[in-house]
């Protein structure tokens, strides 16, 4: 162990001499320190809380490298300008930092224990040389990787890319990689990532054969088109309104919207299209130029580059989520004076709150909505634990087919979106669905008074009086199902309880209620059919 520490110290000393002393000195000094006495117990405690941490199955011989990886992680998070490194380390951004990028790439122990919260890695424009830095691929959870504008050479690890199932953006352009010899591998890269990810990378066959001829032709055509078509006011218009460009000429930034596009979609942010307004946000309905109906959540002010970068990273995560019970985030706008989130509203008819107040939905329809909401919450918890939502009846939209769509997401950490918080929010949602009472508007004491009132009435055996007045005339079967749903809602909102139900347990309970309800409806339908046949037969005899 002493020999290993000595070799590491020599390497770090050499690295320290070739990079700027303002950054290297603190990290080098910290890396030369031994782990604190309680470091091993700290790791054990962390693994008990989250067994998915990469170091959880390590041996004591790895203790030193794990300690070093935590030091590097702290410095790299700050160097990448993450908004709050105490809470989240979601991206690595070392773009155009030729002194820092090689340093952090040299810390193989960091990449071995890469934090699972990192979703994006940007090492572009750093003049990196040598083979592909394969150890960055040990961050197998990443969604984006940018190594463009470097001088990397040799073979690209194509098989490793296939293992990164979450990787949706890859940019290896402007490097010197060896040409791919198998057309199947080239087809895989183009189909999954698009050929624009490999411009002048050396990888694609088409970039070698006839390159000079193709380049000359495109240059000639480009000059002619430029001379004939570029007019000043049109150029400015296309910058402000890229949706006016023919689709073949648009840049591949489908998620990016400009303020002018949003202004046009909302009629100049008119009051007629204003749906909701708070101290921070304004929510508008709008229609894009292609006819897509959207919801646009707008915040105005003066936004720094750091805050805008953090906002964009959150939106990139939200735009990747796909589920039938989540409102689809189409894109965003990040401007110095305005930021906005654009979501698809094509299938939305109204909110659940409006539906409850403006109509008399039967219990089986309310049950369907609750199950759909629970399916959306399960997806978030299982696939995107860092994404939470503000679950309220006003924030859940309904389609024409009564398919619920959860909206108003936020990206934080797994701890901020703990399952207990989600369960509590769902419990409030469920109780509001049954009682048709708003805990924030109908009760002066808010949610606590709302839950207390339901508990008191329920425990006194008067559960029928809790049910929405529009549902008082119901079958005994529906009443029993609603009583079970009330008990589930109260269990979810029992904040002082040590045994809150899990999301999976709640989903199972609702599945049983739904199955029971479907059986009863089927029996009633068959009875009606038999009575109808019987009545028709009697009339025929007469």
UniProtKB/TrEMBL annotation:
GO terms for molecular function: ATP binding; protein kinase activity. Pfam families: PK_Tyr_Ser-Thr (PF07714). This is Protein kinase domain-containing protein. Residues 258-542 form the Protein kinase domain. The chain crosses the membrane at residues 217-239. It is found in: Membrane. PROSITE patterns: LRR, PROTEIN_KINASE_DOM. The keyword Kinase does not apply. GO terms for cellular component: membrane.
């Amino acid at each position: 162990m002493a020999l290993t520490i000595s070799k590491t110290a020599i390497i770090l000393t050499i690295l320290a001499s070739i990079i700027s002393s303002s950054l290297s000195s603190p990290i080098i000094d910290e890396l030369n320190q031994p782990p604190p006495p309680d470091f091993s117990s700290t790791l054990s405690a962390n693994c008990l809380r989250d067994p998915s941490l990469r170091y959880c199955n390590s041996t004591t011989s790895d203790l030193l490298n794990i300690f070093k990886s935590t030091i590097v992680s702290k410095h790299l998070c700050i160097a990448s300008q993450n908004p709050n490194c105490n809470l989240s380390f979601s991206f690595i951004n070392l773009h155009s930092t030729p002194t820092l990028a090689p340093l952090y790439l040299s810390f193989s122990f960091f990449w071995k224990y890469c934090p699972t919260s990192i979703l994006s890695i940007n090492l572009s424009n750093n003049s990196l040389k040598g083979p592909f830095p394969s150890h960055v691929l040990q961050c197998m959870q990443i969604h984006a990787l940018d190594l463009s504008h470097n001088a990397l050479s040799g073979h690209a690890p194509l098989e490793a890319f296939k293992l990164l199932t979450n990787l949706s953006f890859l940019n290896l352009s402007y490097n010197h990689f060896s040409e791919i010899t198998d057309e199947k591998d080239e087809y895989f890269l183009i189909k999954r990532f698009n050929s624009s990810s490999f411009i002048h990378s050396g990888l694609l066959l088409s970039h070698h054969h006839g390159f000079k001829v193709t380049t000359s032709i495109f240059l000639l055509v480009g000059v002619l088109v430029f001379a004939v078509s570029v007019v000043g006011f049109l150029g400015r218009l296309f910058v402000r309104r890229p949706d006016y460009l023919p689709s073949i000429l648009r840049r591949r930034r489908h998620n990016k919207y400009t303020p002018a596009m949003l202004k046009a979609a909302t009629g100049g942010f008119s009051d007629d299209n204003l749906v909701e307004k708070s101290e921070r946000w304004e929510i508008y309905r709008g229609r894009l130029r292609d006819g897509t109906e959207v919801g646009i959540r707008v915040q105005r002010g003066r936004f720094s580059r750091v805050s805008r970068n953090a906002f964009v990273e959150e939106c990139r995560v939200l735009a990747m989520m796909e589920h039938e019970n989540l409102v689809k985030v189409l894109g965003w706008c990040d401007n110095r004076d305005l930021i906005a989130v654009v979501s698809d509203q094509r299938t939305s008819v109204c909110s659940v709150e409006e539906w409850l107040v403006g109509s008399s939905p039967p219990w089986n329809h309310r049950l369907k909505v609750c199950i759909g909401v629970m399916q959306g919450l399960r997806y978030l918890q299982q696939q995107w634990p860092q994404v939470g939502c503000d679950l309220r009846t006003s924030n859940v939209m309904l389609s024409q087919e009564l398919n619920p769509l959860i909206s108003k997401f936020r990206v934080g950490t797994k701890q901020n979106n703990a399952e207990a918080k989600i369960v509590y929010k769902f419990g409030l949602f469920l109780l509001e669905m049954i009682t048709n009472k708003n805990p924030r508007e109908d009760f002066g004491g808010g949610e606590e008074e709302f839950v207390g009132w339901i508990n008191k009435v329920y425990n006194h055996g008067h559960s029928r009086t809790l049910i929405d007045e529009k549902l008082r005339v119901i079958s005994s079967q529906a009443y029993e199902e609603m009583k079970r749903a009330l008990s589930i809602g109260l269990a979810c909102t029992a904040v002082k309880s040590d045994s809150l139900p899990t999301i999976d347990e709640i989903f199972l309970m609702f599945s049983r209620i739904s199955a029971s309800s479907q059986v009863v409806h089927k029996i009633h339908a068959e009875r009606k059919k038999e009575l109808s046949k019987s009545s028709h037969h009697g009339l025929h005899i007469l």
